[in-house]
Amino acid sequence: MTSHRTRRHAAVVLAAASALVLGACTAENKDDADKAGAGSPAAPPAPKIAPGVTADTIKIGVTYPDLESVKAFVSIDHGDYEAAYNALFKKINDAGGINGRKIQPVFGKINLISPAAAQETCVKLTQDEKVFAVLGNFNGDEPLCYVQTNKTAAIGGQLTAKRYAQAQAPWFSDLRGGDEVTDSIALFNAGNSLVGKKVAVLSNVNEQALMKDVVIPGLQKMGVTPVETGVLDAPAQDAAAVGQQTGVFIQKFQSAGAEAVVVVGSMGASFPQVLEQTKYRPRLLFTDFQQIQAYANDKGKHDFTTLTGAGALGLIANWGEATNQECMTTIEAAAPASKGKLTVDPMTLPAGTPTPQTSAGAACRNVALLKAIVEKAGKDLNYETFQNAGFSLGSFQSPGNADKATYAQATPHGAIPARLYVFDPATQKFVVSAS
Predict the structure, then answer these.
(1) Which terminal CB of the chain, N or C, has fewer other CB atoms within 10 Å?
(2) 55 and 81: one domain?
């Protein structure tokens, strides 16, 4: 595609390192974790097999976005993913590995404008390299190539109930892909701000179920019935069609008198770009903080009046959290040029500034979770022991997150609660709402 698709991809891969805020650590909310675990999803099959595992090594795949591939469309600098992961793997290996096994990484860089790139990387890591598990940045349904098609364990990606039901191998993450909206959509109505308002809802066809099954029922529970809805089904490769169809929705929303628009999932990275070309300024409410944060961080020229009064749901980060700072210091030590940069909260940096913290943050979170589960699995490492270890991990501090995760069979996504962010026009950043 052009800018619409590439910005959307870039937004997804920002992950937790884009979701950074100032403030103290928030205590774990057990009620949120309990609600997130309602329904107890069926565990995927976990046979006693151990691809990529020898007596003294574990072969681990790592995927990450090739941002050079979208340089012509969007200016984002995440730093060096391979260097960040290698620094953490080296520290583990230098200490004797995990239960006596050293990590042997295999990297897969994904060209974001090649439709086949993610699939090719999946085949390389699972069929050619036969890794034990794959860590990294996954977009949309990409984890299913690993955990369903190739029955390979994975850590990371948007672990939704629908995707997890299709998994044929162990899968753990700290992201829920929109499912957390069920527990947090009421935050949009803080101070009864939506009561009596006309509200529209926008989604793309891939996230239509989230709109219909979660967002609209959640609004109706507040007493808000949408006056208009829209589902973008234009081909992602056709920027003109995407822009044109989005423009039609904007006209419909405005004609219906919508005073607020709930923007579902990945539409958050592209909708404001079209809206800013009009004079229509409804209050925007985003279900995915990562998506709109990528738009807000883009150093290209934007009319941020589109974000006046905007809110977004996302996890609360705490860059000063102890395990995160320790991890950043480890990566800095391995790359002297980054010394003093990674420990700095990227939310304090001007928009458009390179954020090597993004690659470092992804590495810290994924490697920490892998290490914790493999350690708990013990010397007899296979998919059965790996999955059982993850299900019994319990409370876990994911580096850089303020709220702790809770891993159990009912919560393979960690059940980290989402919070409300609001747009601050003075800094042109989203900050955690005081309410």
Answers:
(1) C
(2) yes
Do 359 and 393 reside in the same domain of the chain? Answer: yes
Whether residue 310 sits in one domain with residue 344: no
Confidence of residue 28 (pLDDT cuts 50, 70, 90): very low
| 268 and 192 together in one domain | yes
Q: In total, how many domains does the chain have?
A: 2
**Paired strand residues for 379:** none
DSSP-assigned states of every residue in 367-431: HHHHHHHHHHH-SS-SHHHHHHHHHT-EEE--TTBSSPEEEBTTBTT--PPPEEEEEETTTTEEE
- Tens digit of pLDDT for each residue in 395-413? 999 999 999 999 999 999 9
For residues 198 and 227, state if they share a domain: yes
Q: What is the dihedral of CA 211, 215, 219, 225, to 10 degrees?
A: 0
Of the candidates 206, 192, 303, 328, the residue with the CA atom closest to the CA atom of residue 264: 206
For residues 74 and 193, state if they share a domain. Answer: no
Residues constituting the chain: 435
The per-residue b/e assignment along 334-345, b for 16 or more CB within 10 angstroms, e otherwise, is ebeebeebbbeb
Whole domain around residue 249: which residue ranges?
181-316+419-432
Mean pLDDT (the chain, rounded): 87
* Rounded Cα gap, residues 309 and 73, in angstroms: 28
Which residue bears the tokens 């009319």? 303
Same domain, 73 and 92: yes
Q: Is residue 3 part of a domain?
A: no
**Token pair listed for 175:** 């992201």
Tell me, yes or no, whether 71 and 164 share the same domain: yes
pLDDT exceeds 50 at position 18: no
C-alpha distances in angstroms, 362 versus 79, 197, 248, 292?
11, 39, 37, 19
Tokens matching residue 166: 């299709």
**pTM > 0.70: yes or no:** yes
